[in-house]
């Protein structure tokens, strides 16, 4: 149908949605116009993930570094998040999408936290897809918090291992992403899931986020399926 091998769809895809500002500038509009149009790409990415049978989709929606943007832009992003949660959550849940977040929610405006908590508590038990929004998230914050939690638990240094660290990350219980997509032609990881992406394949798309459509998502999965995943060992592909 779409040329993909449906037996090798990644379980977890993480996306750095980038290029909203440039997309808007190219149209002679302000940056917020780009974010507004980025919401349609979020919708389409969720729909496509569901259609392809991806189980976890994680979107980098707001980083701890994004607070340094002009106040009007930060406020507009928070407002957009709030309005999107209110307008979309029923549709998400009717379609079996469970919503959750990673990041330091205590830094977000209270009305956003309330809307998030309401949307999360209404999530369906029987879900097809887990949609994780990374909000006020950075990987260094997450790893630092995990180290603090481990130290606070009284664990001995001999007991600290990759497993105990992973269990204290915001993503505890989720599989690591097999594929990370970043749009807008930037080739950086920007403090996003540094631990969890240790063995992920990276797909960099030149498309700006508001233009990111199903065909681009499918192209990223096709690119992933053409990679020879070795995990530091030998080829996993047959006849090699
Ligand atoms: C990056 O583009 C985009 C963001 C920091 C925000 C992403 C937000 C949305 C897509 C809309 C709301 C999302 C949800 C989940 C409701 P940029 O501003 O860094 O673009 P630039 O690199 O061209 O400046």
What sort of overall outline do the alpha carbons produce when their principal axes are compared?
Answer: globular
Head-to-tail CA distance between termini: 28 Å
The CATH topology corresponds to Undecaprenyl pyrophosphate synthetase
What can be said about the biggest beta sheet? 6 strands, parallel
Rounded to an integer, what's the Rg over CA atoms? Answer: 18 Å
Q: Under the CATH scheme, which class?
A: Alpha Beta
In total, the number of domains comes to 1
- State the CATH architecture: 3-Layer(aba) Sandwich
Structural class: alpha/beta
Number of strands: 6
Q: Please mark out the parts with pLDDT under 50 across 5 or more consecutive residues, or reply none.
A: none
Count of runs of 4 or more consecutive helical residues? 7
Arithmetic mean of pLDDT:
94
Portion of residues in beta strands equals 15-25%
Lay out the secondary structure:
Blueprint lengths: L11 E5 L3 H7 L4 H22 L3 E8 L7 H24 L2 E6 L7 H12 L7 E9 L1 H14 L9 H6 L11 E4 L18 E4 L9 H12 L15
Parallel strand pairs: 1-2, 1-5, 2-4, 3-4, 5-6
Helix pairs in contact: 1-2, 2-3, 3-4
Farnesyl diphosphate binds next to helix 1, helix 2, strand 2 and helix 3.
Description:
The protein has a single domain (6-228), classed as Undecaprenyl pyrophosphate synthetase (3-Layer(aba) Sandwich), CATH 3.40.1180.10. The mean pLDDT is 94. Helix 2 (31-52) packs parallel to helix 3 (71-94). The protein is of the alpha/beta class and 240 residues long. It has helices at residues 20-26, 31-52, 71-94, 110-121, 139-152, 162-167, 214-225, and strands spanning 12-16, 56-63, 97-102, 129-137, 179-182, 201-204. The chain starts with 11 loop residues before the first strand and ends in a 15-residue tail after the last helix. Helix 4 links the parallel strand 3 and strand 4. Strands 3-4-2-1-5-6 form a six-stranded parallel β-sheet, sandwiched between helices. It binds farnesyl diphosphate (FPP). Farnesyl diphosphate is lined by residues 17-22, 31, 35, 38-39, 42, 59, 61, 66, 77, 80-81, 84, 133, 184, 209.
């Amino acid at each position: 149908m779409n040329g993909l091998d449906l037996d090798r769809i990644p379980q977890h895809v993480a996306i750095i949605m980038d290029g909203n500002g440039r997309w808007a500038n190219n149209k002679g509009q302000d940056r917020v116009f780009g974010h507004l149009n980025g919401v349609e790409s979020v919708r389409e990415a969720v729909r496509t993930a569901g259609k392809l049978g991806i189980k976890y989709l994680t979107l980098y929606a707001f980083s701890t570094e994004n607070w340094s943007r002009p106040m009007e832009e930060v406020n507009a992003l928070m407002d957009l998040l709030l309005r999107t949660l209110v307008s979309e959550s029923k549709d998400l849940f009717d379609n079996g999408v469970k919503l959750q977040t990673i990041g330091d929610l205590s830094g977000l405006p209270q009305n956003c936290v309330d809307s998030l908590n309401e949307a999360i508590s209404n999530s369906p038990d029987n879900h097809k897809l887990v949609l994780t929004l990374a909000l006020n998230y950075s990987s260094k914050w997450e790893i630092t918090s995990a180290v603090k939690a481990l130290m606070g638990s009284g664990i001995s240094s001999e007991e600290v291992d990759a497993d105990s660290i992973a269990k204290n990350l915001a993503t505890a219980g989720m599989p690591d992403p097999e594929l990370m997509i970043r749009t807008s032609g930037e080739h950086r990881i920007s403090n996003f899931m540094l631990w969890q992406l240790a063995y992920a394949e990276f797909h960099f798309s030149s498309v700006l986020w508001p233009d990111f459509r199903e065909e681009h998502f499918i192209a990223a999965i096709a690119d992933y399926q053409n990679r020879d995943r070795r995990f530091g060992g030998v080829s996993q592909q047959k006849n090699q």
